[in-house]
Write a structure and sequence with these properties.
heterodimer; A: 473 residues; alpha+beta; ABC transporter involved in vitamin B12 uptake, BtuC; Jelly Rolls; five-stranded antiparallel sheet; three-stranded antiparallel sheet; 15 helices; 10 strands; B: 395 residues; mainly alpha; two-stranded antiparallel sheet; two-stranded antiparallel ribbon; 16 helices; 4 strands; 72% helix
């Protein structure tokens, strides 16, 4: 990794070269940037202060950018530091996303436990697809990861259709903390009416469930609104929790209206009476964009920091030596295969975290979100940002996303006006979806030809130019 | 202890592993095909070979570029789409606009004439050739009415393919000569994305009808050939689609034609020489830059032919670029440098795909899974392919 320092900076110790913050001022700027990032939602229209300085759209945009920063940072470890090409990164994200969604939906995991588990699982599958790196490298390895990009979604689509929903979108509950306020305990018979406040997330736990005159079937919950109608589960983000034996242990939902909701235990048979003790308690839900922002952004910063830190360790230096010349690295006694596998594992863990966050941020998953195009787009983001630079992922994702946000709405009406007149066979309908690939494909071509080291390299030059002003670099 | 044993008997162990794998695969196939009629199996094999013919042609285009410039072209699928779409435009549009044809032919002629250097356009003689070329090409694209549409379509497709190939080479590959392989891979991916966007704007995502394989007698689709003669032997009737047969024969003719081109024409020989060693070729007076440009143009023409055949036989939409993704395993299987390997690999992948579809047609095993499993197996067991050259690396 080429570090550029202004003239007059001399390192006398290796420790200095490895410092994250070389000067107190560096540290100050980084901390200020982090604080400013955390302040963004507070200044937004729907923020708690109600200042309305920043449009809500940017809060969710920064959230999505941060998710992809994590994924691209994982790619940076593999591509930028270890020099292995991966065309299957979107498929690894898909594993993270679907694993966490299934853990949350089927096995009653919360977001907080699903995140590490799904990340680890993705890492292990990443290891599996890293195995060909024992025998092949360079372009051949790109082919192996391309195979991953097709095999993984196929497995998710067909053999695992029962849990992933196949081609249909899969809904994912919002993450929450709690229940931390135990609200009340109630004894209910077959039906009970309980008061809820509007807009709060409640968790209803079954403490004891006594089944009198059982016919064997387990009861399900049903919720009726204050008006008396049965509330569809999707409207209130209702999730049913099951315990390890697959029995109903409770459910959670967001009360959309204040008032007395009716909680009913229903069964298919008419006979049989149920007696249950339920506890309703409030939970802190992260359903809104602003709330998700405070999960995603600190996590992204943490992951960036960890990735930066890895490069300062023995492992990171081994990665870089494998990238620069793997044969020479092997001669130096570095176990090339082991380090390649580690890079695959780490990269897939990052992809898994990003996939998990994407699942919980969107609240809905479909396999179309993880196509080959997305893998290529992430590679493009990395190259444009600067592969092998700690900030490369951030620059790349931000640049491409803002380019899309800014250029597509301005270009679209203009192109839709002009192109069909110039070329008779062009239909305006097709322009909208086609701008995106042209835009980032074109950006990638321009960067590859003119600045293959990416924006991060320019940024280093800019910083140096600023430090040694008024003298030119 | 174990590693010592493995190292000592590496070769027989490897072959034992291959044999075990083959037995497992054969047992699996036997299990899956146990309930199927012999006629179905024969039919699947035949259509696999037929489908594989077009795949071989696609693989040949990738191999040609890889041999000449050492770039694995991930954009080949989109070059197919461009070629097939241009063909469709000239083939189905009744009134071809003279302005459009003139624009296309002048862009192509300018790219061809400036292949050596832009300065050569200043010479009056070259200008004259350019003007004549534009005129002839435009005439070929627009002369006559709908009865000459084959001529229009061929002239237009060749012009479009040459333009695409030369433009890609000139503006994206040439500036990167000497860059690492990784940059080249990304560049072809970027080209793929740009071509994706351009074709989507121009022709949309709807499946288009490309009626090139029609029965001249009835002017409608061909009836399928029923192998009635073998009814008893096969325990049923195998069906062969005529479109696939024609596409296979045309692909084979094109394949042989290009092999003859590489073997006997001076340009083809120069291309092969360049692929062997660029510096050596340069030192005997070959213009390596021009030859690389020609290679890309030839590959684009190959891609267009494959695209038209695929579009006519199976259906024309942007999705035919996925066919090229399925051909990557074929290229690796045959060996990256081997032209004969492209033929063998293409046909093997065609058969694998058809058998995958036979075993499980509802889950797209044949198109979405089987080729990539083959790819993984090739990479792990024999990365150089069946006929590829062994790579030796030095520090």
């Amino acid at each position: 990794m080429a570090n550029i320092y202004p003239a007059g900076v001399f390192d006398t110790e290796y420790k200095q070269d490895m410092l994250i913050d070389r000067t107190p001022r560096d540290k100050l700027w980084k901390n200020l940037a982090f604080v400013a990032l955390l302040l963004v939602p507070l200044l937004s229209v729907s923020g708690p202060l109600g200042l309305g300085l920043i449009s809500d759209q940017y809060v969710s945009l920064i959230g999505r950018i941060s998710i992809f920063v994590i994924a691209v940072q994982g790619l940076n470890i593999l591509v930028g530091y270890t020099g292995q090409i991966s065309l299957g990164h979107a498929a690894f994200m898909a594993i993270g996303a679907y694993a966490s969604a299934i853990l949350a939906r089927e096995l009653g995991f919360t977001f907080w436990t699903a995140l590490p588990v799904s990340a680890l699982l993705t890492g292990l599958i990443g290891l599996l697809f890293g195995l060909p790196s024992l025998r092949v490298k360079g372009f051949y390895l790109a082919m192996a990861t391309l195979a991953a990009q097709f095999i993984i979604p196929w497995v998710l689509r067909y053999p695992l259709e029962d849990v992933t929903g196949g081609t249909r979108p899969l809904s994912v509950p919002a993450p929450m903390i709690g229940p931390f306020v135990a609200y009340a305990e109630d004894e209910v018979g077959e039906e009970a009416t309980i008061a809820f406040e509007a807009g709060e997330t409640y968790i209803v736990d079954v403490i004891t469930l006594e089944i009198v005159d059982s016919s064997g079937a387990l009861p399900a919950f049903e919720l009726r609104s204050p008006a008396g109608a049965v509330v569809p589960a999707g409207d209130i983000n209702m999730t049913v929790h099951k315990d390890a034996d697959g029995r109903l242990s409770g459910f959670s939902f967001i009360a959309t209206k204040a008032g007395d909701y009716q909680v009913a235990l229903i069964t298919e048979e008419e006979t049989g009476a149920f007696r249950a003790r339920i506890r309703r308690s409030k939970a802190l839900s992260f359903a809104s964009d602003v709330a998700m922002y405070y999960i995603i952004v600190p996590l992204a910063v943490l992951m960036m920091f960890l990735a930066r830190n890895i490069t300062r360790t023995r492992v990171g230096r081994a990665f870089i030596s494998v990238r620069d010349n793997d044969l020479a690295a092997e001669l130096l006694g570095i176990n090339v295969f082991a380090y390649k596998l580690q890079a695959f594992f780490l990269s897939a863990v990052y992809a898994g975290v990003a996939g998990c966050l994407l699942a919980f941020e969107r609240n809905s998953l479909s396999l179309d979100m993880f196509r080959l195009d997305v893998s290529i787009e992430m590679l493009a983001m990395l190259i444009i940002g600067g592969a092998g630079f700690p900030l490369g992922a951030m620059f790349g994702v931000t640049f491409i996303r803002f380019l899309q946000e800014a250029a597509i709405p301005t270009l679209r009406p203009w192109l839709s006006d002009i192109l069909p007149q110039l070329l008779p066979f062009v239909e305006a309908v097709n322009i909208t979806s086609a701008i995106n690939p042209i835009l980032f494909g074109g950006a990638l071509i321009i960067f590859l030809v003119l600045e293959p080291r990416g924006i991060a390299h320019r940024w280093e030059i800019l910083k140096v130019a600023w430090k040694i002003r008024p003298y030119s670099y | 202890m174990i590693s010592k044993f493995i190292n000592k008997h590496r070769k027989p162990l490897t072959w034992a592993l291959y044999a075990a794998l083959a037995v497992v695969v054969l047992l699996f196939l036997a299990d899956q095909l146990a309930g199927k009629k012999l006629a179905r199996i024969v039919q699947t094999t035949i259509s696999g070979v037929l489908v594989g013919g077009v795949y071989s042609l696609i693989a040949l285009g990738i191999v040609v570029i890889n041999k000449a410039s050492g770039v694995f072209n991930f954009a080949h699928g989109w070059m197919m789409v461009v070629g097939a779409m241009v063909f469709w435009s000239f083939f189905t549009v009744a009134e071809i606009s003279v302005v459009g044809a003139a624009l296309l032919s002048s862009a192509t002629m300018l790219m061809i004439m400036s292949a050596v250097s832009v300065k050569s356009l200043r010479e009056p003689r070259n200008l004259l050739i350019t003007a004549a070329g534009i005129a002839i090409w435009t005439l070929l694209m627009t002369v006559g009415g709908i009865e000459l549409r084959w001529l229009h379509a061929l002239a237009g497709t060749v012009a479009g393919a040459i333009l695409t190939g030369l433009a890609v080479e000139r503006f994206t590959i040439r500036p990167l000569i000497g860059q690492p392989l990784f940059t080249m891979v990304l560049m072809t991916l970027a080209i793929a994305e740009v071509l994706h966007g351009v074709t989507q704007i121009a022709w949309g995502t709807v499946e288009l009808n490309l009626p090139i394989f029609v029965d001249p007698a009835t002017n409608s689709k061909f009836k399928v050939i029923r192998l009635d003669a073998f009814r008893d032997a096969l325990d049923g009737i195998a069906i062969v689609r005529v479109e696939l047969v024609i596409a296979f024969v045309l692909a084979l003719i094109a394949f042989i034609g290009f092999i003859l081109f590489f073997r006997y024409t001076s340009v083809g020989l120069a291309m092969r020489a360049t692929s062997e060693d660029q510096q050596l070729a340069q030192s005997v007076g070959l213009r390596v830059r021009v030859i690389l440009a020609i290679t890309w143009a030839v590959a684009a023409i190959l891609a267009s032919i494959a695209g038209v055949l695929q579009g006519g036989a199976v259906g024309l939409s942007l999705n035919i670029n996925f066919v090229a993704l399925r051909v990557f395993p074929a290229v690796l299987l045959g060996g990256l440098e081997s032209i004969g390997g492209a033929l063998v690999g293409g046909i093997i992948i065609g058969i694998v795909e058809q058998f995958g579809t036979l075993i499980n047609s509802s889950e797209q095993v044949g198109t979405d899974l089987a080729p990539y499993v083959v790819l993984m197996l090739v990479l792990v067991l024999r990365p150089d392919g069946l006929f590829g050259e062994k790579r030796i690396e030095r520090i």
